[in-house]
Structures are given as C-alpha cells and as structure tokens.
Design a protein that fits this description.
alpha/beta; four-stranded parallel β-sheet; 4 strands
Length: 122
C-alpha cells in the first residue's frame, strides 16, 4: 500500500525551479532523458559525458525550450551547459571537469550519477 507524502517532507525538492542538477552519462539514453525532464521542471542542467558533440546538441535543445513563466528558473540565462567528463579518467582530470560544472552556475544542488564504466577488452 502506497503512503501519502506531504510536500513538507519533500522540502526543498517539491519545487525544482532553479535547482542546479549535474547529470553524468547525459549524452544518451536515460541520462539524456533525465536532463530533458528536469529542464522541463525548471532545473538548470549541467550535462556531463565523454561525447561533447552530443552534449552540445542536448544543451541547445534545452536552452531553446519555451517554458511557462512559473517554471522558468533561469530567466534570460542559460538553462543547460555541457561539460566533458570521463568518469574513468584520473583524479585531476575529473576534478577539472567538476570545477567547470561548478563554475557554470556557481553551485550544484544535486548529482545524478548515471554514467557507466565498461571494461576494455584485452
């Protein structure tokens, strides 16, 4: 049996307007879908993955979305930015990508760690 959850228990997440969400593995599949859905809900998106050309296309799509005024969150500014990130890279490379993500909007409210790692065949 499902239980009812009040908005008070979801604070501050019952209203996503203006929240900054970093999504790894954002260039395709469920990561891309997360970005689009969160943007429609009013979030600012930091889309991170290895395939920068796909990320730029995704961010262009998000930045061209028409949203109602009550779900704008980022009036006049970018709603999505692309950050190249390979989660299997060395620590300093990952730190550099995370720093770019942070600088895009000045903070990050949430991380959706969706990227996968696949072993390379011998």
């Amino acid at each position: 049996m499902a239980t009812q959850v009040s908005h008070r228990h979801l604070e501050p997440w019952h209203n996503l307007d203006g929240k900054v969400v970093l999504v790894t593995g954002a260039s395709s599949g469920i990561g891309r879908d997360f970005c689009l859905d969160l943007a429609r809900a009013g979030c600012r998106i930091v889309a991170a993955a290895r395939r920068l050309h796909r990320l730029k296309s995704l961010c262009d799509e998000i930045n061209q979305m028409s949203l109602p005024p009550e779900v704008g969150g980022c009036a006049g500014g970018l709603r999505a930015v692309a950050v190249e990130l390979d989660i299997s890279a060395d620590g300093p490379s990952i730190d550099k990508s995370v720093q770019k993500a942070w600088e895009a909007f000045g903070h990050i409210d949430a991380l959706i760690n969706n990227a996968g790692v696949r072993e390379k065949p011998d």
